[in-house]
Amino acid sequence: MSDNLPPLTALRAFDAAARHMSFAKAAAELHVTPAALSFQIKSLEKHLGLPLFRRLNRAVELTEAGRTLAPSTADGFAALQAAWQATRRLQDETSLTVTAGPALTAKWLAPRLYNFATAHPEINLRISTSLQMVDLQRDDIDVAIRFGYGNYDNLYAVHARKEWLTPAMSPALAERFPTPESLVGAPLVINDYDSFLTPPCDWPAWFRAIGINAFEPHGMRFSNVEHSIDAACAGVGVLLGRRPLLIKDVLEGRLVTPFKIAIETEARFSFLCLPGAEKRPQVAAFRDWYLAEIEKTANIWGEMEIIPVEKVAR
Predict the structure, then answer these.
(1) Within this chain, do residues 110 and 223 fall inside the same structural domain, yes or no?
(2) Are residues 94 and 176 in the same domain?
(3) Neighbours of 62 (CB within 10 A)
(4) Residues paired with 126 in a beta bridge
(5) Are residues 57 and 81 in contact, defined by beta-carbon separation less than 8 angstroms?
(6) Which of 97, 168, 188, 290 could form a disulfide with 219, with the two C-beta atoms 3.0–4.6 Å apart?
(7) Which of 80-84, 205-209, 227-231, 295-299 has the lowest mean pLDDT?
(8) Contact, 178 vs 133, CB < 8 A?
(9) CATH code for the domain of 94
(10) How many CB atoms lie within 10 A of CB 267?
(11) pTM metric for this prediction
(12) Which among 94, 102, 90, 164 has a CA at the least distance from the CA of 128?
């Protein structure tokens, strides 16, 4: 038995048959006849010296050798496909796929995209909303914008400002609760989507920042960012919200942030791409636009007392 790799066409036939557990379906996928596919698999078995399938009456099943070979064969073809797609993208200077979280997309990114499209009509931009981890080599994504603590090994990363959180409410609620201390009696909107932050950037931490200890918040809880902001806009309660997710509704008057006290986390948004991809014209254009848009609204709150959450952690 030789250690030399068999022909790629034979491995491709095996991979398709192992995924479908059907020679007929595998042949249809590869646009060959079942006889041609069967010939490729028999040649692979001859090369290996072991059977890979048991041929049953109306089906096939993998042998022990087939079960051993199938996972790595599938991974190998997936890696080849990803590498091919990544290499083809190098010559494309007009297409750009960006992934960002649903909340950032809805509340910050989407309202500004007209400006980018106007400035760069030559770029075909696609936005993919997701909070899932992505493989920029495999998933046909050019740029990811992610919120976290900035541990992005082996990626080109540009980190935005640290994020802070401050109370936001409807104008009507602001009239009822005119001081920071008065929020002790206010209806609260409690978000669970930032629960991963360490130390916690939550209502007890904010109240400790204004000198009120042992505060236990009560109110309506949300796991979805947009829902919690919409609830605050509707006057359901006061939200402790992150700056970029509040900007749209503050600028349009649905929310106000009357108290100039915020708690700051080390977490921040980061612009991420594969090393070297930042030199591609469309990626560089989006990065520069993204950073410029952040700076446009950096000072809309005026003077804000920003307290690192570590100083008020329990």
Answers:
(1) yes
(2) yes
(3) 18
(4) 97
(5) no
(6) 188
(7) 80-84
(8) no
(9) 3.40.190.290
(10) 19
(11) 0.74
(12) 102
